[in-house]
Amino acid sequence: MKNIKCVIEARMGSKRLPGKSMMNLLGKYKLIDYTIQSALNSIFLSNKNVYLLTSKNLDNLKLIKYVKKNYKIKIIKGSEDNVFSRYHFLKRFNNVKILRITADNPLVDPFLIDYSLNFFEKNKIDYLTTRAMEHSKKWKIKSDFPKGISLEIFKSKKLFQNENKFDFTNFHSPTWFFYNKLFKAKICKLKSFGIYKKISKKLSFTIDTKNDYTRVKNLVKKNNFAPGKDNLCNFYKNK
Fold first, then answer.
1. Fold topology of 4-237
2. Which of 29, 88, 130, 225 is surrounded by the fewest CB atoms within 10 Å?
3. Quick check: 174 and 83 in contact, CB under 8 A?
C-alpha cells in the first residue's frame, strides 16, 4: 500500500496528567514506546513514514531527545495550541493517506492498524475512525470498541482543501470537521470485528488521568505486555 503517513500526536503539557507520554508502563518502556512500536510493527509502516507530532514548547525537549535517541522516525514540531499547524508538512506530499494515533492510547494493536488501513483502501473512504461520535452534532454514533482503541485515517486532500474556513476548534482538533460533517466527504465508523467483539465496551485503555495510568499500567504489568506485539488481541484470544 502506497502513500501512507502515520502521525503520532504526543506532548508533555497535559493539564490533567503532565508528562504522561514519558511515564513508564513496563520496566523501561514508556507510553510513547508503546505507541511508536505499535505503529512500527504494522506491515505498512516503517521509520520512513512514521512521524512524531509535538510542539515547540520547552517541556517537550525530554520527549524529543528520548525519541531521537531510541527511534529513527521523523519529528515535527509546531504550535502547542494550534495542533493543525503540525500537519502542514504533509502539504508537500500528493494526497496521502494519514493514520492518526495519540500517545494517550498506547495499546492500539498493529493488527488493528493494518485491518483499518486495508478497509480504508478497499472502500475508498475519505475518513475512517474507531472513535465514538456522540459529542458531535451531526454524527451521533457510538463506538463498539472500548475507549482507547482509537485511530483515525483520512486523506490529506480532504484535510487541507477547506482550511481557509477553519476556526479555533479545527486548530485544536484537526479532524473535527469530518465527524461534524461540515464538508462533503465519505466518512465511516469502523465496526468491531473478530477478537475485539470479546472486549467489553465498558473498558477503557486510554490514559487521561492518574487513575487511568494506574489501571493501564497494572494491566500491562500483570500480563507482561511488550510494546508492539498485538497485546490486546493476543490477551483476549487466550481468555
1. Spore Coat Polysaccharide Biosynthesis Protein SpsA; Chain A (3.90.550)
2. 88
3. yes
Hey, where are the domains in the chain?
A: 4-237
Each residue's pLDDT expressed in tens, for the chain with a length of 239 residues: 889 999 999 999 988 999 999 999 999 999 999 999 999 999 999 999 999 999 999 999 999 999 999 999 999 999 998 999 999 999 999 889 999 999 999 999 999 999 999 999 999 999 999 987 766 777 777 888 999 999 999 999 999 988 888 887 788 888 888 888 888 899 999 999 988 988 988 899 999 999 999 999 999 999 999 999 877 887 887 76
d(CA 23, CA 33): 10
Q: Tell me which amino acid residue 45 is.
A: L
Strand partners for 155: 97
Answering whether pTM is above 0.85, one says yes
Rg of the chain (C-alpha set): 17
If you search the block for the grid coordinates 485515517, which residue do you land on?
153
